[in-house]
Amino acid sequence: MKAVTIRVPASTGNLGPGFDCLGLALTLYNEVTFEVIDGGSGFAGVTVDGEGQGCIPTDETNMVVQAAERLFDLVGKRPAAWRVRQQNGIPVGSGLGSSGAAVLGGLMAANALVNGCVEVGEILTIAAEIEGYPDNAAPSLYGGLVLVIKNNGRWFIEPIAVPPLRVVVVLPDFDLPTVVARAALPKEVPLTDAIFNTGRVGLLLRALEAGDYGRLAVAMQDRLHQPYRLPLVPGLVAAFEAGRAAGAAAVALSGAGPSLIAFAPNGHEAIGEAMAAAFASAGLASRRWLLGVETAGAKVLSGSGARV
Ligand code: HSE
After folding, report:
1. Atom of ligand 1 nearest to the CA of 254
2. How far apart are CA 134 and CA 136, in angstroms?
3. Which of 1, 55, 97, 255 has its CA 20 to 30 Å from the CA of residue 289?
4. What angle do CA 152, 179, 16 make, to 5 degrees?
5. Residue 148 and residue 159: Cα distance in Å, rounded?
């Protein structure tokens, strides 16, 4: 039986001021396996283990399957009969890039299974098109810290080397679909807010490159999305402030939320506890992870094909 397994890391988008342009891959993973099966025809279903089990669709509306179908259509090749297994470590709807990881897993598994020869840049283009923004797919695909912008209709990727960093992610038990978090944003922003963010993105890159937690405190402030999104979740503002008060150099909404990510050189346990306590005071349970930076990005763990 021919099979291919892809591992895709989680990602945190925006990193404060870098709305839709900056993302960082994290050491939390989804694995997806595509199996060609004997007999039958076409897509034969999905099994899901781990995060999202019981709520991720197992029919053809599944994001992994939809992404795979898109790639099969693109290359004009598809297996006669195939099924999918998902082993998910990335919480769904958390702001940690679970949907981007699902899309990448589907595209890369499909590509490897049929030797589609679709290049990594094209994989990102398709993933960003499906997602509507690139700052989760880009770091999950390439690994590390990635700046991604569109230039003349093409994605321009700038990987930025960062030293090992440790972050705490705290996820409140609250449903905040990305589409709702994006709908909360204004269509236009004041020039002063644009200037506020532009300078901080520059500073943020320098701070992350240097692993300089001191400068992160200034650099990770944002006026383009967080002020509009933080009020959407009970306890989010309090948890944000609790993380800083407990010693985090910087706290930001991870992607569109509802999770928060805190950067600190040490004291991660106390920071996570303080943030969780703030959510608890607002009546929300939460889960938390201590994570590092995933440098390698998505890869084929077993089966045919090279990196993509
Ligand atoms: N940049 C996107 C947003 C990321 O903030 O809406 C979503 O995870």
Report:
1. 8
2. 6
3. 55
4. 70
5. 8
Q: Answer yes or no: are the C-beta atoms of 6 and 249 closer than 8 Å.
A: no
Per-residue pLDDT of the chain (308 residues; tens, 9 = 90+): 699 999 999 999 999 999 999 999 999 999 999 999 988 888 999 999 999 999 999 999 999 999 999 999 999 999 999 999 999 999 999 999 999 999 999 999 999 998 888 999 999 999 999 998 999 999 999 999 999 999 998 899 999 999 999 999 999 999 999 999 999 999 999 999 999 999 999 999 999 999 999 999 999 999 999 999 999 999 999 999 999 999 999 999 999 999 999 999 999 999 999 999 999 999 999 999 999 999 999 999 977 543 44
Six token digits for residue 17: 């001021």
Q: Which atom of ligand 1 is nearest to the CA of 181?
A: 6
Pocket of ligand 1 (CB under 6 A): 13-14, 19-20, 95, 133, 135-136, 178, 181-182, 225, 255-256
Contact criterion met (CB below 8 Å) for 25 and 143:
yes
Q: What is the whole-number distance in angstroms between the Cα of residue 291 and the centre of ligand 1?
A: 19
Distance of CA 281 to the CA centre of its chain: 28
Ligand 1 centre distance from Cα of residue 135 (Å): 7
Amino acid identity for residue 135 in this structure: D
The sheet carrying 167-172 orders its strands as: 250-253, 260-263, 167-172, 286-291
Contacts of 150-155 with C-beta under 8 Å, sequence gap 24+, read: 154/125, 155/121, 155/124, 155/125, 155/128
